[in-house]
Amino acid sequence: MIRTPLMTVMVDAVMKAARSLKRDFGEVENLQVSRKGPSDFVSAADRKAEQVLREALAKARPGYGFVLEEGGRIEGGDTQNVWYVDPLDGTTNFLHGIPQFAISVGLERDGKMYAGVIYDPIKDELYVAEKGQGAFLNNRRLRVSARTDLADCVVACGIPFLGHGNHPEFLRELGTIMAKVAGVRRMGSAALDLAAVAAGRCDGYWERNVQTYDIAAGLILVREAGGFVADADGGEQMMQKGSVVAGNEVVQRELLRIVRTASKAG
Ligand code: 2AM
Ligand code: CA
Ligand code: CA
């Protein structure tokens, strides 16, 4: 486990928000739900959990900036430090009673991801990473998988949702990848997909049209677990371009090659 003051702040905030989310998941049929766009739901649960996170983080680290899924960007006096907060990653799952969702909080320092916490309240799985300190799941040190034969690999993905993204491009990528790997999974939370790569459960993951707060914490987790991440063009602009290809060294390289070819073929 990482016992730095920063980790304590992040974990305390996340666990507090998790109590609110868990209560709401227990009575999800009573939640007020609104739409931000086609298939883009926001519920009272997202808003409440975000409020808890925002208050706790602002109190512990006054002046840090925020990028909040619901609240947007809030500049702080301290421009070096920015929190990326997704209070509920996997809202569609949550609202359907599917127990696969998480809270994700990442800290960017001087333009680079510095620390991340992802918590799955249903499985009680807490993923933490801080630059140079490694990545952990509960108290276990994480390492990306060692599988190199694609035929043994399970790869997670995100499917572009209704009204967003390029579905033909995704299907070209999927067609090539599913013909080579043991299995492809679409689990519905980008944060938990990256956490699964860090934990070696999934060997790779790719998705386009993700937001900064979906991936911020997961990027540092994968890196601290010895994995590799890039944007869909092979660069470092995951946050700016909203695309991510992650995995162990071999799987990430192969996924990236396929994704780059698929986008050219379009
Ligand atoms: P969310 O639940 O916080 O919206 C899954 O592919 C990822 O995409 C999740 O991280 C999910 O985050 C996000 N997502 C799913 N549907 C979305 C939509 N309609 N608009 C934006 N992000 C979405
Ligand atoms: Ca969300
Ligand atoms: Ca999200």
UniProtKB/TrEMBL annotation:
Q: Which CDD domains match?
A: IMPase
Catalytic reactions of this protein: a myo-inositol phosphate + H2O = myo-inositol + phosphate
What EC number(s) is this enzyme filed under?
3.1.3.25
Q: What residues bind Mg(2+), as annotated? A: E69, D86, L88, D89, D214
Q: Which GO terms describe its biological process?
A: inositol metabolic process; phosphatidylinositol phosphate biosynthetic process; signal transduction
Question: What are the alphabetically sorted keywords of the record?
Answer: Hydrolase, Magnesium, Metal-binding
Which InterPro entries did the record assign?
IMPase, Inositol_monoP_metal-BS, Inositol_monophosphatase-like, Inositol_monophosphatase_CS, Inositol_monophosphatase_SuhB
Gene3D superfamilies (UniProt xref) = 3.40.190.80, Fructose-1,6-Bisphosphatase, subunit A, domain 1
Q: Name one GO molecular function term.
A: inositol monophosphate 1-phosphatase activity
Q: Name the coenzymes or cofactors required.
A: Mg(2+)
Q: What's its top-level EC category?
A: hydrolase
Pfam families xrefs: Inositol_P
Similarity comment text for this entry: Belongs to the inositol monophosphatase superfamily.
Q: What is this protein called?
A: Inositol-1-monophosphatase
Source species: Salinarimonas ramus
